[in-house]
Design a protein that fits this description.
The protein has two domains: 250 residues, 3'5'-cyclic nucleotide phosphodiesterase, catalytic domain (Catalytic domain of cyclic nucleotide phosphodiesterase 4b2b, Orthogonal Bundle); 205 residues, no CATH class. The protein is 59% helix and 0% strand. It binds zinc ion (ZN). Keywords: Hydrolase, Metal-binding.
Length: 470
């Protein structure tokens, strides 16, 4: 289980952690949060049932390049951090509560030394094999030597430790609410097939038929989570809940998981902003619908938060998501209909190999632009919108988001198509999948001789798809 001093840190390295817990990061992160929030003992949950449930949940995450159990652990840990900030806001009003001495939160949470980022970045990019990438990396390393400044804004204060865990009646978040947030985060991509809703609909996937083309993945994730508890022996998390408690948790969790569908992103932000306009102080939001809206935004923000992590983490996540996307683009549709330019699995495997690795890496032309698009279109607006509800998290995340943004801008300006982390490696099979996909593509987007118009056209397609996928 993650130590309490780790589970609220913003530089929490979920990749290292996954290795240290032998590939079970979701189980361990979730148990640590439940434990720290006082939900495992002396409350409604039965610890052995929770352990069995989370073990089963973790096993049902597929080894996708991005939507895997490490991503679920990352989102759950992120939600835990944001939850601290929201709780502080609810308890202490417009102050972020960071000065509270009664906090039971770890004193070291969320402190990230800006001076260490440069060396980590240098290590991360040392493996880059492309000359132009090295030049841009040098510039990025230089930029990282200074503490992150807010390119996306200008917070006056450095990141502060976040506020208390725990909870008190009439004060911050109720235990039932904390549990709902943690559970929703843990299951929010349960059973994710590694392709997005649009693909499932176009390929007439069985889940698209089941859920009538609407939030297909998200409906499936939520349904799986509750079906496990209801039908599998020994996994009923809710056995001790009253009907009313179960009803409330179920509503909140369903709302939160369904809100992670990017198709409802703008609708969710508008609903949140409209509610804020009529009731500016979120501490007064007492109805179930208002609380649900708060938590939907929280989990949605946690799901988008990769670019606001320290650079070495943000870069790794970017690499993983692009890999999954490219894998999807070339995945054959069911029955062979509807997918232009697809390649069969055998064709992709046959074309795979390290010999094409460099070419394939260059071909990943869209990465900086795609990330900038994602930050500007989705992540930053969500962070800004949620600021009144979690000002401490805003101040924590914004400098790192600005830092990430500046680096992607530098890479883009430097003509770097494919920054490489080199750390940690892609998930098992990820590198092979990426190379095979790119080798098999009809037009390599990275070629220096490639017509600029074609590059831009392909890049725009990728940008749109990347935006849909996360
Ligand atoms: Zn997710």
């Amino acid at each position: 289980m993650a130590a309490k001093t780790q589970v609220y840190r913003w530089d929490f390295n979920v990749f290292d952690f996954a290795q240290s817990v032998k590939g079970k990061p979701l189980y361990n992160v979730t148990m640590a949060l439940l434990q720290d929030q006082g939900l495992l003992d002396g409350w409604l949950l039965d610890r052995p049932v929770v352990e069995a449930y989370l073990t089963r949940v973790e096993s049902m995450y597929k080894p996708n390049p991005y939507h895997n159990n490490t991503h679920a652990a990352d989102v759950t840990q992120t939600a835990g951090v944001i939850m601290c900030a929201l709780d502080a806001r609810l308890r202490y009003g417009s102050s972020d509560g960071s000065a509270s001495s009664s906090s039971s939160c770890c004193s070291s949470c969320c402190n990230v030394g800006g001076g260490t980022v440069g060396s980590k970045l240098a290590n991360a990019l040392a493996c880059c094999t492309l000359p132009h990438a090295k030049a841009a990396a040098t510039a990025a390393v230089a930029a990282a030597q200074a503490p992150p400044s807010a390119a996306a804004g200008n917070p006056a204060q450095p990141p502060q430790p976040l506020a208390a865990s725990g909870g008190s009646p009439g004060g911050g978040l109720a235990k039932l609410e904390r549990f709902a947030i943690i559970l929703a985060s843990a299951v929010h991509d349960l059973g994710h097939p590694g392709v997005n809703n649009a693909f499932l609909v176009r390929s007439r996937d069985k889940h698209a038929l089941t859920y009538n083309d609407r939030s297909v993945n998200e409906n499936m994730h939520a349904s799986l989570a509750f079906t496990l508890a209801a039908e599998e022996p020994g996994l009923n998390l809710f056995a001790r809940f009253s009907p009313a408690e179960y009803e409330q948790v179920r509503k909140l969790v369903l709302d939160m998981v369904l809100s992670t569908d990017m198709d409802v992103h703008f609708k969710l932000l508008k609903a949140f902003e409209d509610e804020l306009a009529s009731a500016p102080d979120v501490a007064t939001w007492a109805s179930l619908e208002q609380r649900s809206l708060l938590f939907q935004m929280l989990v949605h923000l946690a799901d988008l938060a990769n670019p606001s992590r320290p650079w070495h983490l943000a870069l790794t996540w970017a690499e993983w998501v692009v890999t999954e996307f490219l894998q999807q683009v070339r995945r054959p549709g069911r029955g062979g209909h509807g997918m232009r330019g697809v390649r069969g699995q055998g064709r992709r495997e046959a074309s795979c190999g390290l010999a094409v690795s460099d070419m394939c890496n260059e071909a990943k032309v869209c990465m900086p632009a795609a990330q900038l698009f994602f930050i500007e279109r989705f992540m930053l607006p969500t962070l800004e919108a949620f600021r009144p509800a979690a000002p401490a998290f805003y101040r924590l995340a914004l400098p790192w988001l600005g830092d990430t943004r500046a680096k992607w801008e530098a890479f883009k300006a430097g003509g770097v198509k494919l920054p490489r982390t080199g750390y940690p490696a892609l998930p098992p099979g990820g590198e092979a999948q990426l190379c095979a996909v790119l080798e098999g593509s009809s037009g390599c987007t990275c070629s220096a001789s490639h017509a600029q118009g074609q590059v831009q056209e392909q890049q725009q397609q990728v940008l749109a798809r990347i935006g849909q996928q996360q």
